[in-house]
Amino acid sequence: MKQQLDPTRECGSCTECCTLHGLAGETERPCRFLVKGIGCGIHKTRPESCRTWYCQWRYGLGLDEHRPDRIGVVPHPGTVPHTLRLALSPGRRTAEQVDSIFGLLHWMFMEKGLLAVWVKIRTECDEPGPAHIELTGPPQGLEGH
Fold first, then answer.
1. In the chain, what are the domain boundaries?
2. Are 99 and 71 in contact (CB under 8 A)?
3. Could you tell me if 56 and 77 are in contact, meaning their C-beta atoms sit under 8 angstroms apart?
4. How many angstroms separate the CA atoms of 74 and 106, rounded?
């Protein structure tokens, strides 16, 4: 079943996905079409991959206060089924961001039963892109406990 966007949530001024992931299929970060203070410089003609990609916050993950631009984290599907990846904004690693991340993780555990099972702070030296936290569902046999 395809996920449904939460009709009460809009990207608004948030451009974290453009900042962290850039244009789909390209490695340039932030996206070369991102205009500071404005957003997407090619919004009306942006590629299909940008028109159809939404972070998990748009699908209802977390609270309103967990919008990616407010906490510096973009939640998106992980590379393994039933996982979630949190991409962390590299320029915003502050105590406030850490508190916000733990707030989101607490919500995800309490509301969705998701557990953080793998954490790797990825740097430009390791491979291009933002740091990530990988999450997965409860261990087999613990569902509903």
1. 16-136
2. no
3. yes
4. 16
Quickly list H helices, the chain: 16-21, 48-52, 68-71, 95-107
Cis ω before 90 (30° cut-off from 0)? no
pTM of the model: 0.74
Q: How far apart are CA 107 and CA 92, in angstroms?
A: 21
Q: Which two tokens stand for residue 66?
A: 């967990």
Segment 134-145, tens digit of pLDDT? 655 544 443 443
Token code pair at residue 111: 């509301």
What residue type is assigned to position 132 of the chain? H
The count of other CB atoms within 10 Å of the CB of residue 122 is 15
What amino acid is encoded at 37 in this protein? G
The model's confidence at residue 131, banded by pLDDT at 50, 70 and 90, is low
